[in-house]
Amino acid sequence: MLAQKLEQLKQIFTAMDRALIAYSGGIDSTLVAKVAYDVLGDRALAITAESPSLLPEDLEEARIQAAAIGIPHEIVQTHEMDNPNYTANPVNRCYFCKSELHDTLKPLALRRGYPYVVDGVNADDLQDYRPGIQAAKERGARSPLAEVGVTKIEVRQLSQQLGLPWWDKPAQPCLSSRFPYGEEITVAKLQRVGRAELYLRKLGWKNLRVRSEGDTARIELPPEQIKEFVLTTDLPQLVAAFQEFGFIYVTLDLEGFKSGKLNLVLDREVLSLKG
């Protein structure tokens, strides 16, 4: 089944002939970039959007990965922070982010002779609340992984099969996803969260989130790592570092890391309406 899906992905790119990949450096879009380059060579182009919601370190990782694949790679600036619909952080914030991204990529692709813009949306993403997917579809973007039915687990399996050393790289959604809906997003807040997460990564914790609510940082780690974190981390030093970044309070989420946790408030709203 996995081999069949890989072949279907290759067929999609063969039919495209030329494609521009919206390449974040995450595992999904990196797999898409790899398959596209294997099929199209220099007729595939990876573009990464640089903005305050992307850590400079993650941008550098994207560069390194693209170079390892061999795919031509360029960086463009996006300006979602200039849009008050985005910075107000409504529940459909991602719609405005992806609108800005694809409003930037589509004309660039057409000018450069790429008839298709493709992204890394996978089949599992279609089951979650992802308003950005709609924005991409409205602008004609295609999602080969979703079209073929490749799940998140299969993305990792295919990446490992194709020899990508970052096949087990933790997901890293944009830093704006760390804030509860309705809390205004600013460049300073994004930088504060980014520095906090980078601090924890340098301590060796890879799969994590630092959720930001007002002046409070809430650290999320996989449940099985919480005990080790408490026993081995210099907590006073960590608190001091986070306060230097601009937080006042530093907490640990005892439930542990859960992707999309801030969407729980949406689930409660739906249940209250049904009740």
Main attributes of the structure:
4-stranded parallel sheet; 3-stranded mixed sheet; alpha/beta; 12 helices; 275 residues; globular; 7 strands; 12% strand
Question: What can you tell me about this protein's structure?
Answer:
By secondary structure, this protein is of the alpha/beta class. Helices cover 49% and strands 12% of the residues. The chain has a 4-stranded parallel β-sheet with strand order 3-2-1-4, sandwiched between helices. A 3-stranded mixed β-sheet has the order 5-6-7, with helices on one face. Strand 1 (19-22), helix 2 and strand 2 form a beta-alpha-beta unit. Helix 2 packs parallel to helix 3. The termini are far apart. Mean pLDDT is 94; it is low at 270-275.
Short description, anyone?
This protein has twelve helices and seven strands.
Q: How do the helices and strands follow one another from N- to C-terminus?
A: HEHEHEHHEHHHHEEHHEH
Are there runs of 5+ residues with pLDDT below 50, and where?
270-275
**Strand line-up in the sheet with most strands:** 3-2-1-4
Overall geometry: globular
Determine the mean pLDDT: 94
Q: Number of helical runs? A: 12
Please provide the count of β strands.
7
Radius of gyration, in angstroms, nearest whole number: 19 Å
Strand content: 5-15%
What structural class is derived from the secondary structure elements? alpha/beta
Summarize the amount of helix as a percent range.
40-55%
- Largest beta-sheet characterization: 4 strands, parallel
* Intertermini distance: 42 Å
